[in-house]
Write a structure and sequence with these properties.
With 97 residues, this protein is mainly alpha-helical. The protein has 4 helices and no strands.
Length: 97
Amino acid sequence: MELEDSMDLGTQMVKQKIVELMQPARKLQEKIHSQNCKPQGQKQKHKPHPAKYHNWLTPFCWTQIVIVAKQVGSKMGASDIANRLKKRNPVTFAKIN
């Protein structure tokens, strides 16, 4: 049990680092904001929270994405694909943009 818990914690840490590396603008924006001498704008109501990792490349999800992309065609954009995926399987693709 303990070994499984530590492995889960380790994989969560790795996934978190991957997500943060994929969004470098987030860290850059925090750095620029902290260098400003004067407070500007409204005070933050909500603290920033870390980004979440969603693995859309699982075989189940990826096959559905490919099928819907073929149905939509090349002239339609990513938002059309996302909307059709949400209609097709709202639970799985609720957070896809």
